[in-house]
Amino acid sequence: MFGFVMADIKELTREQEQRYSSVYCGICRRMRLRAGGVARLGLSYDITFLSMLLMSLYEPEEEAGNRACHFHPIRPRAWVDNEYITYGADMNIALAYYNALDDLEDEGKYSAKIASNIFGKEMETIRALYPEKCKCIEGNLAQLRALEKENCPDPDKMAACFGGLLGELFVYKEDMWADRLRGLGDAMGRFIYLADAAIDYRKDGEKEQYNPFIAAKIAHNWDVFESILVSLMARCTSYFEQLPLVQDKEILDNILYGGIWLQYRQKQRQRSRGGKR
Fold first, then answer.
1. What is the rounded distance in angstroms from the CA atom of residue 232 to the CA atom of residue 163?
2. DSSP states of 162-221 as a string?
3. If we measure between CA atoms, which residue out of 87, 119, 126, 124 comes closest to residue 103?
4. Do 100 and 59 touch, CB atoms closer than 8 A?
C-alpha cells in the first residue's frame, strides 16, 4: 500500500539529493542494527518523509557517518542518525510486520510468512517501546480487514482506518504540534489508501478482490479519482504549512507537491498499459 510518498529526485539539487539519501540510509542502518540485515528489505521511502518531517520540526542533534553496505558495497554512503531516525526505523519494522501478517491471513503467501518471521523477532522490543503505536496499527488494520470482509461500500470509512493509523504514527509526542501532525498524517493516510485503490481498480475487479470504489459502485474514472485525491492532498498540505519548518523544507515541499503526484501518475500509466507496479 505504501510507495507514493517519495521525492521527485530530478527536481532536487545535488545537495538536497544527498541529504535525502542520508536520511534514507540512516533509517536503513537503524533497521539493520535493530533487526538484522534482511530487515532492510522492508525499508520504505514513505517513512523517510516521516523522519525528515519530525527532524525538520524538532531539529535534533545529529550523528553522521559514511559506510558501504551489502546494497552499495563499492562506494560508501552517507547516513545521519538521531532519535527520529530510530523512531522511523522502528515504525517501518512494525508496519512491515503487521502488513506481512495481513498478507499471510488474506492470501497465505509463503513470502509473507518469511517476512513476518524476520520482522517479528524484534516486535516484543518495539511493542515495549511504543505500545500505543503498535496497538493503533493492530486495531486499524484489524478494522480494515473486517470491513473488507463485509465488502464495505463506503470508501471514506475505509480510508479513515488507514488515515487514523498514519495520523497516530506522525505524532511522536503529545505537544503543541500533535494535532497538526495527526491531521497531516490522517489526510496522507487517506490519500495513500484511496490512491492505491484507484491504481488497483481493474486488477481487483478482474481477480474479484475487494476494492472500496468497486464496492461503492463507482465506475473506473481517473478524473473522479484524481478529484478525490486532490482534495485529500490539499488538506494534507494545509496542516503541513502550519508547521514551523525550515530545515529540509524544500525537500519536504518537493515530496508533497511533486513527488507524490509523480509516483501516482507513474503507477497510473503502468496500470493503464496493463503493466505491473
1. 11
2. HHHHHHHHT-SSSSTTHHHHHHHHHHHHHHHHHHHHHHTHHHHHHHT---HHHHTT----
3. 119
4. no
**For 108-142, how does the pLDDT look when each residue is reduced to its tens digit (9 = 90+)?**
666 667 777 778 778 889 999 999 999 999 999 99
Give the separation between CA 106 and CA 210, rounded to whole angstroms: 11
Whole-model pTM over 0.85: yes
Q: How far apart are CA 271 and CA 58, in angstroms?
A: 39
**Mean residue pLDDT across the chain:** 91
CA 81, CA 67: separation in Å to the nearest integer?
13
Give backbone dihedrals phi and psi of 64, rounded to 5 degrees, phi first. -140, 160
- The residue among 18, 86, 79, 103 whose CA lies nearest residue 50 is 86
* CB 253 within 8 Å of CB 233: no
Give the mean pLDDT of 188-198: 97
**Whole-number Cα distances in Å, 162 to 29, 112, 135, 168, 174:** 27, 20, 14, 10, 20
Angle between helices 83-107 and 14-35 (to 10 degrees): 70
d(CA 186, CA 190): 6
For 233-275, the pLDDT digits (tens) are: 999 999 999 999 999 999 999 999 999 999 999 999 887 776 4
User: Exposure of 106 by Cβ count < 10 A (0-12 exposed, 13-18 middle, 19+ buried)?
Assistant: middle
Query: Letter for the amino acid at 240?
Result: F
